[in-house]
Amino acid sequence: MKYFIGIDPGVTGGLCVIDEAGRLLHLESCPKTLKGQWEAISRARAVTGEQRSNLMCAIESVHSMPKQGVRSVWTFSGNYHAWLMALVAAEVAYQQISPQRWMKHFGTMPQHSGTMAEQKRKRKHRILHMAEQRYPSTKITLALADAVMLAVYAKEQL
Q1: In total, how many domains does the chain have?
Q2: By residue range, what is the domain housing residue 68?
Q3: What's the mean pLDDT in 121-133?
């Protein structure tokens, strides 16, 4: 059996594990500490029966954006690299996937006029809707939807 992890590395992101049949096995919010991130990866491995060789992770790649504050970039980057180190330490194979790449896989995201914040909000709600359609019996929040769809992307593309 193959297993797939999706990680949205943002502070309000999360981690999702699905199997090759597409069953959602584990879903959790992004931990707030380094130890918490390590424990989250350990829980993900435990759900799969420690199947390192049959486990692939898609983690959303991140970079700084114009007009982001220095502190927020520093925090975001630190969180992202902590996830990468936890994956390496747990011997979980991973690929860094740009948001544009995985979102394009699921079709065109709505392009709206308005501020960047309004566009992001509408895009996030579209992703949430897709995740809820795939897993109607699971309570998926706006914060966890990207992780769910990254896991689905990993299953379908990696």
Answers
A1: 1
A2: 3-157
A3: 92
